[in-house]
Amino acid sequence: RPRRSSSSLKMSIAVFGATGGTGGEVAFQALKNGQEVTCLCRDPTTLTVPEGSGGSEAGLPLRGVTNVVKGSVTNQADVDKVFEGQDVEGVVVALGGKTKDVGPTMLTDGTSCIINACKKYGVKRIAVVTPIGVGDSKDQAPFAFKILMATVMSSIFKDKNAQEELFAA
Question: Residue 100: which residues within 8 A CB-CB, separation 6 or more?
């Protein structure tokens, strides 16, 4: 399909991590603003209205999503399905999860697949959500949080930093 002009108010975005708190909020707000939203979910039944601004609808299925692709962000073919036949103009990466649940390199591996797909399908707008303490914000983290980053959360922060380095390269 031909791309819409940059002056168009309606935009089509892909949200990776839409079943989580931040990604769910992004998808919900984009839909409220009339945007087209495509999501990749391991389990589409967990794509619900977020608690943050969903009010009495929080926890109900998120309606109005243009396309929900079932798959894994670490599988390039699954990620490519998000873009195939769609007019995705921007991407939001809000991946997360506990290392014991998602593996030690899911963020880096998944983001690599997303970057590959963006290049393949000509998408140039991408936003990546990472916590304070990652990359050049490391010095801005409170002292107690730095201790957690270096101990209990070291595995996830290693993956988050590697994820961010993909964009520096």
Answer: none
Indicate if the pLDDT at residue 143 is higher than 90: no
The model's pTM: 0.87
* Residue-level pLDDT at 6: 47
d(CA 66, CA 84): 13
What's the average model confidence in pLDDT over 101-115?
Answer: 93
What is the dihedral angle through the alpha carbons of 61, 64, 65, 66, rounded to the nearest 10 degrees?
150
Q: Strands, E, within the chain: which ranges?
A: 12-16, 36-41, 67-70, 90-93, 125-128
Largest CA distance in the chain: 50
Q: DSSP labels for 80-136?
A: HHHHTTS---EEEE-----HHHH-TTHHHHHHHHHHHHHHHHT--EEEE---TTSGG
Compute the CA torsion angle 147, 153, 155, 159 (nearest 10 deg).
-100
Inter-helix orientation angle 154-168/143-150, to 10°: 100
